[in-house]
DNA sequence: GTTCGTACTTAGCATTGGCTGG
DNA sequence: CCAGCCAATGCTAAGTACGAAC
């Protein structure tokens, strides 16, 4: 095989390992072909030098070498980060983020060990087989991916057709089909326009204002004296309730609580932006903006004197600040997942010691210094249990309080918080998403995050930047404090912002999902995805062609596009490998994440966003297979990028040449919505089936989309048990149904002929043994119920000063259980069931049986749904990927109320979709 | 081009609170 | 009517993306 030099002189997109050659000669290609054709039964010889990556064993190996960075470029000079733990907790230390994945060459790769493999959270994907997807497609034994892929193939074909059609009709400019404005125009409308973020608005201004350097953990020195406005004339209002600064507002939309229809209604007229003409310039987000700032968490309350942290068996005196840190740990002892994680402990302990030192150390009761040296979990030198118990106690007590008290407290709190929950945006009252500043605590990163356990510090007003209208009164910071800055950037949608100390990330206070800005953005997102429909065939044709490009970069790009399009992979931005969990997306896939099996099978196994495992086996296009093999060609090895000549920026730049605003992310939206659309269309809704079944069908579609997007959830600890319980309930009901039917015979034996013997047969999943057991269970259940009731009655009598029932009474009552037992015995023997109830008639019993039947069907549906959802989360795709208008249309077509699909909040969030589509069933994605 | 800084969307798990069925 | 359960909501971490600065 053409030996391509690993270190090419051509600049590479990324060079953190071995590079691929910039060009691919015909010979190279042929060589690849050849190697492929000698396909052997097993995995290809090519490239999988170290054995298939495949998870588990490989994964265990690295165990807890915690603390130590996974992989350091051991090469290069010190400049590299050096992850000295002690340094990082330190104020002055450089903030992590800085060294984004190293871009220097790691030469000498002699360097034995590959990147330590992730330990992962690893949820295994639901193989389509066990996910009860119903008939996803024809053949049943294909792996998940393949099936979906097949489905997709047909969907894609349809897509291409659509695209052509769309372009054609587009050409004709207006097809104006009576529809409401919004949907037709959308495509070439301003709203859907380039989404360029216009610099930072009043960039200069903004810049200056929150000159928070990501990197610098700096003390925040130069808090702006320069913040021009802060001094605002009218301090006036911050306290006032929502309507606050009524003063000079447009008042047009305001319309105070006046004539609202009926009670309970809000006091504002809603803004139906989807009916309004579109904004010319959507980079300006608002013209006036008023709000009251943010809610800070309550101050720390010291522990009672009797509650201490213990070290080496002795209680320890701590200054307030360390004590608080100790409580962070102490109050989460129940979360063994965190508390027992060595990285968590290490990070916590380091930070703890720092604060301890800073506050003058620990003392014993007599005031003598105690040096806290070891964390020592097995032999707990540092013992938090007293703290834990303390919080547990007060927590329980709080919970146990009378409902009225709790309610009163909540009401009081709500009153205090009310002013912060809404803002006035262009004169309209809008809900704020989460107006709270995040409370201090211990950082819990997902997956194997190197910083988990680090102390997340209390955020002071001095770190918070406020974004607000020029003419609006600036909210007063808490007494004795000031804001870090106040700015008036109307190209930003946030109201307040601060930088968090652990990773240097920005945190924003923004509007809620049901607000106009968010809604418009959401709308725009889906319109963008719909726009892609018009280009998808061309894009697919192009990348298919480019899969054979001689230019390595192009070929890689085409291959990546294939993966993103086909398997809904995320873009895969570069990450900072030392300070973040090691997760990847398409462009950052590494050698070990992709395993190839001749002739055309690709196995993906990697941790994606949130350290959720992506495991799938797909059959791919031959050329894609070949390319991947090439991208993995020696000398590449574990740890090396597959797409070493591709970055997300390059990819997106290319995509945007097809369509303004097209990025990798749009494909996920597009594919999810398009898939949902196709699946729903395939459902031939029989209007006669019960609503529950229609919902189930919808959920099945939803689930397929969720699987496509790899949206998972951990199966709850109790899942197995719950399923079993549900199963038993179903069986119990079936048994009862059978008994009811038998009673019919008891009333009228001629019914057997009339209805046929089959009607009276026992359900196939009930057998004698189970029945016996179930009968026993029922008897037992009755017994405990009676006993419980008895006890309760007695308690009551006692409370009322009466004397309790004698034991005899209990025995008397328990006779009922005995009788039940006897009854079952008799039934078992005679194979007959005596009709129960007063005046049993055939009709009545039939009715009962029918009722039971319906309940059984319902429960079975529920059970299947639940099992299918065991490890698939439907919510994420519903909230973020599936065009809500699809659901609205489906609901209308199937005549199912929209509430069955969208919760209250979702209905608020998707109000635009619900209202703009209305009951127009002809809307299409 | 790469890196940095920023802002906004997407994500799963924890907590809450309303409902159901015993 | 109440407990127990689950869906809905809350919380905040972790992605994507893109202009500006280097």
Automatic annotation (TrEMBL):
Keyword tags: Coiled coil, DNA-binding, Isomerase, Topoisomerase
A Pfam family: Topoisom_I_N
SMART domains: TOPEUc
Domain of life: Eukaryota
Comp. bias regions, Basic and acidic residues: 25-36, 153-173, 253-262
Low complexity bias: start-end ranges: 227-248
Gene Ontology terms: biological process: chromosome segregation; DNA replication; DNA topological change
SUPFAM superfamilies, per database record: DNA breaking-rejoining enzymes, Eukaryotic DNA topoisomerase I, N-terminal DNA-binding fragment
Active site positions, chain numbering: 881 (o-(3'-phospho-dna)-tyrosine intermediate)
Coiled coil: 807-869
Key word Repressor present: no
Composition bias type Acidic residues, residue spans: 1-10
Reaction catalysed by this enzyme: ATP-independent breakage of single-stranded DNA, followed by passage and rejoining
Claim: DNA-binding is one of the keywords in the record: yes
Record domain DNA topoisomerase I eukaryotic-type: where: 442-895
Enzyme type, top EC level: isomerase
EC assignment: 5.6.2.1
Region of interest called Disordered, as start-end residue ranges on this chain: 1-276
Gene3D superfamilies: 1.10.132.10, DNA Topoisomerase I, domain 2, Topoisomerase I, Chain A, domain 3, Yeast DNA topoisomerase - domain 1
GO molecular function, one term: DNA binding
GO cellular component term of the entry, any: chromosome
Similarity-based family: Belongs to the type IB topoisomerase family.
Role this protein plays: Releases the supercoiling and torsional tension of DNA introduced during the DNA replication and transcription by transiently cleaving and rejoining one strand of the DNA duplex. Introduces a single-strand break via transesterification at the specific target site 5'-[CT]CCTTp site in duplex DNA. The scissile phosphodiester is attacked by the catalytic tyrosine of the enzyme, resulting in the formation of a DNA-(3'-phosphotyrosyl)-enzyme intermediate and the expulsion of a 5'-OH DNA strand. The free DNA strand then undergoes passage around the unbroken strand thus removing DNA supercoils.
Protein name: DNA topoisomerase I
């Amino acid at each position: 095989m053409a030996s391509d030099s690993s270190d090419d002189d051509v600049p590479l997109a990324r060079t953190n390992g071995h590079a691929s050659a910039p060009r691919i000669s015909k010979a190279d290609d042929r060589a690849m072909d050849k190697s492929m054709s000698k396909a052997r039964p097993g995995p290809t010889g090519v490239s999988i030098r170290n054995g298939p990556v495949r998870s588990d064993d490989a994964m265990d190996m690295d165990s807890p070498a915690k603390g130590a960075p996974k992989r350091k470029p051991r090469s290069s000079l010190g400049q590299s980060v050096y992850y000295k733990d002690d340094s990082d907790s330190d104020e002055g230390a450089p903030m992590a983020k800085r060294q984004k994945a190293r871009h220097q060459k790691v030469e000498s790769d002699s360097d034995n060990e590959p990147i330590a493999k992730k330990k992962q959270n690893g949820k295994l994907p639901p193989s389509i087989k066990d996910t009860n997807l119903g008939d996803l497609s024809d053949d049943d034994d294909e792996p998940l991916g393949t099936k979906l892929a097949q489905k997709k193939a047909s969907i894609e074909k349809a897509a291409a057709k659509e695209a052509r059609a769309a372009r054609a009709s587009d050409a004709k400019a207006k097809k104006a089909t009576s529809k409401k404005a919004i949907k037709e125009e959308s495509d070439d409308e301003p709203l859907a326009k380039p989404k360029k973020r216009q610099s930072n608005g009043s960039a200069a201004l903004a810049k200056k204002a929150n000159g928070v350097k990501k990197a610098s953990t700096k003390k925040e020195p130069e808090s702006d004296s320069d913040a021009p406005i802060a001094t605002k004339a009218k301090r006036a209002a911050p306290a006032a309730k929502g309507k606050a600064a009524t003063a000079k507002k447009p008042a047009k939309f305001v319309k105070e609580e006046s004539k609202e229809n009926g009670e309970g209604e809000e006091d504002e007229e809603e803004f139906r932006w989807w009916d309004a003409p579109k904004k010319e310039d959507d980079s300006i987000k608002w013209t006036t903006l008023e709000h009251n700032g943010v809610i800070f968490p309550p101050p720390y309350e010291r522990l009672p004197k009797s509650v201490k942290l213990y070290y080496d068996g002795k209680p320890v005196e701590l200054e307030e600040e360390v004590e608080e840190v100790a409580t962070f740990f102490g109050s989460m002892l129940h979360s063994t997942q965190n508390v027992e994680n060595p990285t968590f402990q290490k990070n916590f302990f380091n930070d703890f010691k720092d604060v301890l030192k800073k506050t003058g150390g620990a003392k014993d009761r007599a005031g003598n210094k105690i040096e806290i040296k070891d964390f020592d979990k097995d032999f707990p030198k540092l013992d938090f249990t007293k703290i834990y118990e303390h919080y547990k106690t007060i927590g329980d007590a709080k919970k146990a309080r009378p409902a009225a008290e709790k309610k009163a407290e909540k009401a009081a709190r709500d009153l205090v918080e009310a002013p912060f929950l809404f803002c006035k945006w262009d004169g309209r009252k809008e809900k704020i998403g989460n107006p709270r500043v995040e409370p201090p605590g211990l950082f819990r990163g997902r997956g194997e995050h190197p910083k988990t356990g680090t102390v997340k510090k209390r955020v002071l007003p001095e770190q918070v930047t406020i974004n607000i209208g020029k003419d609006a009164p600036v909210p007063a910071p808490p007494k004795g404090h000031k804001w870090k800055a106040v700015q008036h950037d109307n190209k930003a949608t946030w109201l307040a912002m601060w930088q968090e100390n652990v990773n240097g990330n920005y945190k924003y206070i923004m509007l809620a999902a049901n607000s106009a800005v968010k809604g418009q953005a959401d709308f725009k997102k889906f319109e963008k995805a719909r726009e892609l429909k018009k280009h998808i065939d061309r894009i697919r044709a192009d990348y298919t062609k480019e899969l054979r490009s001689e230019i390595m970069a192009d070929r890689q790009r085409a291959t990546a596009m294939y993966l993103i399009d086909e398997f809904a992979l995320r873009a895969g931005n570069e990450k900072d490998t030392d300070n973040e969990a090691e997760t990847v997306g398409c462009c950052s896939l590494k050698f070990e994440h992709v395993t190839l099996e001749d002739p055309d099978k690709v196995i993906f196994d990697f941790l994606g966003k949130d350290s959720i495992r992506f495991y799938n086996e797909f059959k791919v296009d031959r050329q894609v297979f070949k390319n991947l093999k090439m991208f993995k060609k020696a000398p590449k090895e574990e740890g090396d990028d597959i797409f070493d000549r591709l970055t997300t920026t390059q990819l997106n730049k290319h995509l945007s040449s097809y369509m303004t605003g097209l990025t990798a992310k749009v494909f996920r939206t597009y594919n999810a919505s398009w898939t949902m659309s196709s699946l729903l269309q395939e459902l031939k809704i029989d209007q006669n089936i019960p609503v529950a079944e229609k919902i189930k069908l919808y959920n099945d579609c939803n689930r397929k989309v969720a699987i496509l997007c790899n949206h998972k959830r951990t199966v709850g600890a109790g899942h197995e048990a719950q399923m079993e319980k549900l199963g038993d309930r179903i069986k119990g009901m079936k048994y009862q149904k059978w008994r009811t039917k038998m009673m019919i015979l008891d009333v009228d034996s001629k019914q057997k002929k009339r209805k046929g013997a089959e009607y009276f047969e026992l359900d196939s999943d009930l057998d004698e043994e189970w029945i016996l057991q179930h009968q026993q269970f029922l008897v037992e259940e009755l017994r405990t119920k009676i006993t419980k009731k008895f006890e309760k009655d007695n308690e009551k009598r006692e409370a009322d000063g009466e004397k309790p029932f004698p034991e005899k009474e209990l025995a008397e009552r328990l006779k009922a259980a005995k009788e039940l037992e006897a009854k079952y015995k008799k039934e078992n023997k005679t194979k007959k069931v005596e009709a129960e109830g007063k005046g049993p008639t055939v009709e009545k019993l039939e009715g009962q049986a029918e009722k039971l039947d319906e309940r059984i069907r319902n429960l079975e549906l529920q059970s299947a749904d639940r099992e299918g959802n065991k490890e698939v989360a439907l919510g994420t795709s519903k909230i973020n990927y599936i065009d809500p208008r699809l659901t609205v249309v489906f609901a209308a077509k199937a005549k199912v109320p929209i509430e069955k699909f969208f919760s209250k909040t979702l209905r608020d969030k998707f109000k635009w979709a619900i209202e703009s589509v209305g009951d127009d069933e002809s809307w299409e994605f």
